[in-house]
Known about the structure:
This protein is of the alpha/beta class. The protein contains 14 helices and 12 strands. A hairpin with a 5-residue loop joins strand 1 and strand 2 (42-44). Helix 1 (64-71) crosses helix 9 (252-271) and helix 2 (74-82) packs antiparallel against helix 9 (252-271). The two termini are 26 Å apart.
Amino acid sequence: MFKIKNLKKILIPALVLTLSLTLNGCGKNTAADSQKNSSGNTQNTGELKTVKIATPGQGGVLIENALLAQKLGYIDEELKAAGYKAEYMGFAQAGPAINEAFAAGEIDFAVYNELPAMMAKSNGIDIKIISTVTQDYNYAVIANKDSGITSAKDLSGKKVIATTGTILYKYFADICRENNIDISSVELVNAQADANSVLASGQADAYVTAYSTALQLEEAGTGSIIEDTTGNADERTGIILAARQESLSSGPDAAAALVKALKKAADFAQKNPDDVYGYLKTDNYTEDTLKKIYSYDTSFSYFEPAFTDIYKSHLENQYEFAKENKLLGGDVDLNAFLDNTYLDQVNK
């Protein structure tokens, strides 16, 4: 087991996960005819099987290095060679909703944070982390422009969007502790699905969110960022690729293809850092915004799919937080939870 860092205990309600016994997914699709090509990869010669990939937010838009791998065509390319195609599913309620989909067998893979993945595992949902998508993911607190908040010390007595049982709440709780704020004095607003509009309308004074989202809101004139993790590596997390065990058993080639696509995208980013922004831009994020998002480290070394010591440190911090706040249904063996099988294949 990894060495766990000590954190002060923060009491919050445990998140109740809804479990379903229904099992389906990539293992239930009609098998496609396939054969091995000269490089040893499975090459499709018939109908492509579908793998369902979940991601937080609406629209099924991937994030970080997974989005780069998608935009560069690597995911489609590698999956097709293995006899598969991707179907992307977005979940506005993020981790808890993705866990329910895993439990119901409705998805095969997910790109999301480790904390909900650990919670799922501890509650009997048979999933594994098979790769990192990024080893360093940043968070921030943005205050509404009319809230009167200019620093973290002003958050006492305010309305703050920070959903309990999430990594965002952990970050907010740490901020309160560091600034001697009694977290019970803060009115927590549970508005994850429509948080942007709730903040903009003034129904909440501040919003704890991804650094990328906070920058986008700041550029839109909604408010100002008062705290972020770009200078605090201990508060960052990873974004991971998790897989349902049944999907790994019935379709290991799909898992290998996805990890290979992530590796190819990471190599591209590190060799062509100035080109990354053009591929990652979306309707919400311009190239200029993306340059701000990644300005803390433009090497893109954190895109490398690997279980590094830095990544394991992020995982350990979240595990300790989850245990202390009774978010887990049982213990999780972190060493066993990280499945190196597909990373080892890619790095041969």
